[in-house]
Design brief:
six-stranded antiparallel β-sheet, alpha+beta, disordered C terminus
């Protein structure tokens, strides 16, 4: 008997069992909210009666969605490039061995070919602390970009992501952080944004900019795959039922307005330190009542449970 192979089979089996049981526990802990009939007709009638406005022609027509799994990717090898081969220190100071002008350069893993191709030509890749799953990238020449409200922002951002960021096409702009001014992007799966309770640790891209130019960025990346089991793909609630669930639990008042509804993935359950499970959620932007500030809510697209993120965590992937 090949004991090493047998042991590996047992380890893989136990890991799969942990994922499955964790997923079931996650579903069981969700507080299910009663919803209206499947086509949402009675919900439509009630929303109309309560003078709650939305844009029916803009509501997504999606009938089913999968649960997905996100695995945090490590960008760096355990052993860095030897110190005497490092790149010049950005501030010209001492390296971590006391020498001048060189830094202990991290060694990127082979899969990060996009970054390796441009490293030393357009960017400098820096590893911070012991976190191998986050990279800090400094542009050797800042990239000009317009304000997010500009008509050219989307095309300029797409060019930047394609040129400078590993798997940049998977990220989409989410918002500008009010306190720091940085642009925050999240990963997407089949064009649907993926949010987690701590975005900065899960599939997030933070762009630092000044004077209309991107100067640096920090990135984490999730390898996202659908969960292939009986619980993987589900029939989901209609957007109308998601809006009604918010009204039913006083997140929308009479005369309120729904500004946007999109399918997303949220609330990553940690299967282990580097793996999270995401459920399909309706991501709903609500003006609760006239004169109040709009905010986002997450409504579980399978069972109607509502998640109310903290304002700081609404960017959370």
């Amino acid at each position: 008997m090949n004991w090493s192979r047998t042991k590996m089979i047992f380890l893989v089996a136990f890991l799969a069992l942990d994922l499955f049981l964790g997923f079931r526990l996650y579903e069981a802990r969700q507080f299910t909210i009663p919803v209206q009939d499947s086509n949402g007709q009675s919900a439509k009638d009630e929303l109309k009666y309560q003078n709650i406005t939305y844009h029916p022609e803009e509501l997504p027509q999606i009938k089913e969605a999968s649960y997905i799994k996100g695995e945090l990717v490590s960008f760096f090898e355990d052993t860095p490039v030897p110190n005497d081969q490092g790149q010049p220190s950005p501030d010209g100071g001492k390296d971590n061995k006391g020498g001048k002008g060189k830094i202990n350069q991290p060694r990127l893993k082979p899969f990060a070919r996009d970054l390796q191709f441009i490293e030393g030509k357009k960017v400098q890749v820096i590893r911070q602390g012991n976190d191998k799953a986050e990279i800090f990238v400094k542009l050797l020449k800042p990239f000009a970009i317009s304000e997010p409200s500009s008509e050219t922002f989307s095309s300029e951002l797409a060019t930047f992501l394609k040129t400078y960021v590993y798997q940049g096409g998977e990220y989409r702009y989410w918002k500008t952080d009010e306190s720091t001014g940085m642009y925050i992007l999240v990963q997407s799966y089949k064009d649907h944004p993926v949010f987690a309770k701590s975005t900065f640790e899960n599939g997030a891209l933070r762009l630092f900019h000044a004077n209309g130019q991107i100067t640096d960025y920090k990135q984490t990346y999730l390898k996202i795959t659908p969960i292939e089991n009986s619980a993987g793909k589900k029939m989901i609630l209609s957007p109308i039922n998601a809006i009604y669930a918010l009204f039913n639990h006083n997140y929308i008042s009479t005369g309120g307005e729904v500004e946007d509804v999109e399918l997303s993935y949220y609330n990553g359950l940690e299967a282990n330190r580097d793996t999270k499970i995401f459920a399909p959620y309706w991501h709903v932007k609500v003006m609760p009542s006239p004169g109040k500030k709009a905010r986002w809510y997450f409504v579980n697209a399978v069972n109607g449970a509502i998640q109310v993120p903290d304002q700081e965590d609404e960017t959370a992937g």
